[in-house]
Specification:
Blueprint lengths: L1 H8 L5 H19 L1 H11 L1 H6 L4 H27 L10 H11 L11 H20 L4 H40 L3 H9 L11
Helix pairs in contact: 1-5, 2-3, 3-5, 6-7, 6-8
């Protein structure tokens, strides 16, 4: 609590902004450059395939949930510092903003896709939207409705993009399947010591 009020009383470069940039750097590096980050993406994309590949899914899940609790506690302290008071109802309905920010930032419904920077950009978009509606005097109920529509639009765009990509990938797969040589020819090339798909020049 003392740390939260220290954040609220600071006059100068905002410490909350510094903490945000540090978290972006740490988690961005962890997700893109470490084995744990790649395992998180693998589990999000296909947990069965990740398990069969040797990823310790329970360990990764525990680590992710622990990090969620840590970040939620840090966000609570920062929000308390902003209000300069503690309120048990503070942060109600923030989960809608968080989910919408993740999808706006490029996260997929099926999982396994998204970046830390994208989520931050989505958070900025939701922050601008909230501030704009508050300045315009939009009622709270309508604000929640607008944010819900934004979330639905982001999810619908993700689903449409996935379908479009899968249709294109399916066409490419069919084309490659029709142009690939039969298994008998591949076996003959391998037995002759020739790389599959190459021609012997005389």
């Amino acid at each position: 609590m003392a740390f939260a009020f220290l954040l609220a009383q600071y006059r100068g470069l905002p410490i909350v902004g510094l903490i945000l940039f540090v978290l972006i750097g740490v988690y961005g590096f962890a997700m893109q450059r470490t084995i744990v980050g790649r395992h998180v993406y693998a589990i999000g994309g296909n947990v069965e395939a990740a398990t069969m590949s040797g990823v310790k899914t329970k360990k990764i899940d525990f680590l992710v949930l622990t990090n969620m609790g840590l970040l939620a506690a840090l966000a609570g302290m920062a929000f308390t510092a902003r209000l300069t008071a503690a309120n048990p109802k503070a942060g109600v309905n923030f989960e809608l903003d968080a989910i919408a920010a993740a999808f706006i930032g490029g996260a997929a419904v099926t999982g396994g896709v998204g970046t830390v920077v994208g989520a931050i950009i989505g958070g900025f978009v939701m922050g601008v939207l909230n501030n704009g509606m508050s300045l315009m005097g939009v009622p709270i109920d309508w604000q929640q409705a607008v944010k819900g529509l934004v979330l639905l639009a982001a999810v619908a765009f993700d689903v449409w993009n996935k379908k479009r990509t899968s249709v294109g990938g399916g066409a490419g797969a069919e084309e490659s399947a029709t142009t690939a040589p039969p298994p008998e020819e591949l076996l003959e090339e391998i037995e002759a010591g020739q790389a599959p798909g190459t021609e012997v020049r005389t």
